[in-house]
Amino acid sequence: MDVRFISDDGVRAYPATDLKRLLDRPDGLVWVDVPTWDDEAAHALTNIFGFHPLAIRDSRHERDRERTNPMDLASPGPARDARDIDGPAHLGETQRLVLT
To answer: Could you tell me the pLDDT band of residue 35, with boundaries at 50, 70 and 90?
Structure first.
């Protein structure tokens, strides 16, 4: 698992054991990359980030199964353009995290 902290000072690599401390820092963004699945990744995603067990299972077996979800395309619901919103639009932030 690769852990990076991105701030005005640049990008710096850290060990996964520093994740909790890095997430508490208000001066940057934490980037976590899991190029190969291992116990360290499972621990971090489960215990530090609090991902649902099904998300962990799917991440572990990402390439093992086809991902399709049936949808009723006949009634997908209203589509809205951001320019049609009356009032302020809000985008959510997830604790300064980028998960890939």
So the answer is: confident
* Residue labelled with tokens 């809000």: 90
What does the pLDDT look like over 55-73, one tens digit per residue? 888 877 765 555 555 555 5
DSSP code for 61: T
What b/e sequence results for 52-65 when a residue is b if at least 16 CB atoms lie within 10 Å of its CB, and e otherwise?
eeeebeeeeeeeee
Whole-angstrom distance, CA of residue 26 vs CA of residue 43: 23
Per-residue pLDDT, averaged over 42-62, amounts to: 84
DSSP 8-state assignment for residue 17: G
Give the residue from 26, 4, 9 showing the smallest Cα distance to 99.
4
Q: 12 - beta bridge partners? A: 5
Please identify which residue in the block is written with the tokens 């099904």: 54
